[in-house]
Amino acid sequence: MPEFSQPFSGNKCERKLDKNELIRAVRFSIASEFEAIQLYEQLRDSTEDENAKKLLTEVAGDEKEHVGNFLRLLKELCPDEKDFYKDGWEEASEVMGLKD
Ligand SMILES: [Fe+2]
């Protein structure tokens, strides 16, 4: 989604990001990928044009892969964070009575 109010939109940062800034930028990127998925699937579900439906489905799938790309990077940048996700995953599985 275009977000031209962001200081980096269309420009590089005048200095290099420190590690915490990079972690926040990666989290923001993950959220942006989810937003893109929402947009493309909403558009797909709102049209009857078959070519558009096919392309939007394909592109939404690409965005889901990008979520995985950024999650992998986040794990490298912030290795302890995966324990929170694992705890949340296991808690939800327990609440829903699922094994995994
Ligand atoms: Fe993407």
Characterize the structure shown.
The protein has 100 residues and is mainly alpha-helical. The protein has one domain (19-96). The protein has 3 helices and no strands. It has helices at 19-44, 50-77, 81-96. It is flat. The model has no long low-confidence stretch (mean pLDDT 92).
Produce a short descriptive summary.
The protein is 70% helix and 0% strand. With 100 residues, it is mainly α. It has one domain (19-96).
What are the defining features of this structure?
100 residues, mainly alpha, 70% helix, 0% strand, binds fe (ii) ion
Q: How does the major sheet shape up?
A: none
* Low-confidence runs: none
Question: How many beta strands in the DSSP annotation?
Answer: 0
Q: Please give the count of helices.
A: 3
What ligands does this structure carry? Answer: fe (ii) ion
- Summing up helix and strand content along with how strands pair, one would put the structural category as mainly alpha
Relative strand content: under 5%
Sequence of secondary-structure elements = HHH
Number of domains: 1
Radius of gyration, in angstroms, nearest whole number: 17 Å
Average of per-residue pLDDT values: 92
- Tell me the overall shape: flat
**DSSP helix fraction:** over 70%
- How far from one another are the termini? 33 Å
Helix and strand topology:
Layout: H1 19-44, H2 50-77, H3 81-96
Helix pairs in contact: 1-2
The structure holds fe (ii) ion.
The site of fe (ii) ion (FE2) has 4 residues, from helix 1 and helix 2.
